[in-house]
């Protein structure tokens, strides 16, 4: 039976029929796996941001002459520089984005099991991953596109 409201207990089906828990050891191992997957999500997000920043830093053009239209639109310069030909960096960034989006959606679907422990494990994993991988470098101020609201 699929639950449609949050419930507490060791009996949970997570993501697919083969991942069922019914006793404490399996349930706790599942919560640990979800915690680590959520922390890994934050690690990949931080890594993707670094790759994107490095690709943008390598591709920055020379400053435009004073009074030109490009000087009035500084946010467009890095995107225009990347369009010119940093394909390996763009492909790597796109691949990391895809993997990270997939993990984010799987974490969301795991939470949709409506098990309270699963919800807490994923949220704590995201918070611990953010603390470990993203909170100290100031890169969280960079606006990046993110398909999932769980980051």
From TrEMBL:
Lineage: Eukaryota, Viridiplantae, Streptophyta, Embryophyta, Tracheophyta
Major site of localization recorded for this protein: membrane
Biological-process GO terms, alphabetical: protein maturation
Alphabetical list of Pfam families matching this protein: Ctr
Organism encoding this protein: Brachypodium distachyon
One GO MF term attached to the UniProt entry: copper ion transmembrane transporter activity
Membrane topology note: Multi-pass membrane protein
Localization of this protein: Membrane
TM region(s), chain numbering: 24-44, 91-111, 117-133
Annotated Gene Ontology cellular component terms: late endosome; plasma membrane
Record family assignment: Belongs to the copper transporter (Ctr) (TC 1.A.56) family. SLC31A subfamily.
Protein's name in the database: Copper transport protein
Coiled-coil stretches: none
Record keywords, A-Z: Copper, Copper transport, Ion transport, Membrane, Transmembrane, Transmembrane helix, Transport
